[in-house]
């Protein structure tokens, strides 16, 4: 079922940590398919294996059993954005955005031009030579997003990137990311605890069970694209948010 040529496909994926008798079953068995250009949001109770799944997709962890495949045309298909920004304090803003391009050995002039293009796009052009310590949290997360997108990834992995931000800034960045991803059509797997965030951004919202995490429900927000943050004010949005919350509440609170 699903897209015959998915960008990401997981089959019977599991991950455990430790050894018996102290083994922790963190994830799965999990089935997941993400189509090219699709924005998929994962929500679930704390500790259900969401971040573990993302790290397997990024190549930072190996699955215990099962497979996770990414159909790719490049050697480095994925870029990851973390909750804690993951940018380097000792590098300038421009050097941070350029970092992935430097790893790929893109010529410096080309890399600088692409970094500057993304800094302009993210409203950071005036801060190219600043250092992260002088930036606000929202600006640092914009640097992280610019760095990830500058390498033109085939798959964008986002692990609660806005969780540390205040509510107003979080809404602003959600709307900026919505505009960016609708323009670029980058395949995205996005983890969040915020149902509102998932419904604003996602083509699909997948609900995960308590640990070991499995996908127990799928919703397709009925909001056509191009989409704006104004959908937050619709009755359909409120109703779907309530429905998802009931599912999550049952997983988060033991019977």
From TrEMBL:
Keywords for this protein: ATP-binding, Nucleotide-binding, Transport
Domain of life: Bacteria
Record GO terms (molecular function): ATP binding
Residue ranges occupied by any ABC transporter domain in the UniProt entry: 8-235
Cited PROSITE patterns: ABC_TRANSPORTER_1, ABC_TRANSPORTER_2
Gene3D superfamilies to which the protein is assigned, alphabetical: P-loop containing nucleotide triphosphate hydrolases (3.40.50.300)
Protein name stated in the entry: ABC transporter ATP-binding protein
Species: Streptomyces prunicolor
